[in-house]
């Protein structure tokens, strides 16, 4: 029996499931690590208890399972502020967007790297909420 277009679609999904799942897990782990960094951004021994994370679907998702290179997202509650953060893998780095126009590119994922990113994001959000919200890019 000759394979149908449906069979070809199913085979394609199965053939790429490993890399897609690995990328999804990496992005979700990055978002979770960013959450922990945001909780500890005030310094050693001073965890912020009013920080939470709520995984979310990316607003642009039009296909499931997600193709490689897709965005993975979460809402972060930082006290009185809630910010939507989405991240994807590009050339071995985590590339992200947050807030109205904020962007970051993160190559290092050590605790210090993520703490620096968390502090930069909070400073940028404070500026964005305090002024016209000009575009910002954070590179670590």
Short descriptors:
six-stranded mixed sheet, 39% helix, 3 helices, elongated, 140 residues, 6 strands, alpha+beta
Written description of the protein model:
Helices cover 39% and strands 27% of the residues. The chain is elongated and about 65 Å long. The termini are far apart. The mean pLDDT is 90. It contains 3 helices and 6 strands, in the order ααβββββαβ. It has one domain (5-139).
What's this entry about, in short?
The chain is α+β, with helices and mostly antiparallel strands. It contains three helices and six strands, in the order ααβββββαβ.
Q: Helical proportion?
A: 25-40%
C-alpha-based Rg, rounded: 18 Å
Strand content: 25-35%
State the shape: elongated
Largest sheet: 6 strands, mixed
Oligomer: single chain
Element-by-element helix/strand order: HHEEEEEHE
Number of strands: 6
**Order of strands in the sheet with most strands:** 1-2-3-4-5-6
The unreliable regions are none
SSE diagram, text form:
Elements lengths: L4 H11 L1 H23 L11 E6 L15 E7 L2 E10 L2 E6 L3 E5 L4 H20 L5 E4 L1
Parallel strand pairs: 5-6
Antiparallel strand pairs: 1-2, 2-3, 3-4, 4-5
């Amino acid at each position: 029996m000759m394979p149908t277009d449906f069979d070809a679609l199913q085979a394609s999904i199965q053939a790429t499931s490993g890399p897609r799942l690995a990328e999804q897990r990496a992005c979700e782990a990055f978002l979770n690590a960013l959450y922990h960094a945001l909780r500890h951004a005030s310094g050693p021994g001073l965890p912020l208890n009013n920080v939470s994370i709520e995984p979310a679907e990316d607003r642009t998702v039009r296909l499931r399972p997600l193709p490689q290179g897709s965005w993975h997202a979460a809402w972060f509650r930082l006290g009185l502020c809630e910010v939507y953060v989405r991240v994807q893998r590009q050339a071995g780095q985590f590339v992200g967007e947050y807030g109205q126009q904020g962007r970051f590119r993160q190559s290092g994922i050590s605790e210090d790297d993520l703490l620096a990113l968390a502090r930069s994001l909070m400073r940028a959000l404070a500026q964005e909420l305090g002024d016209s919200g000009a575009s910002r890019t954070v590179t670590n």
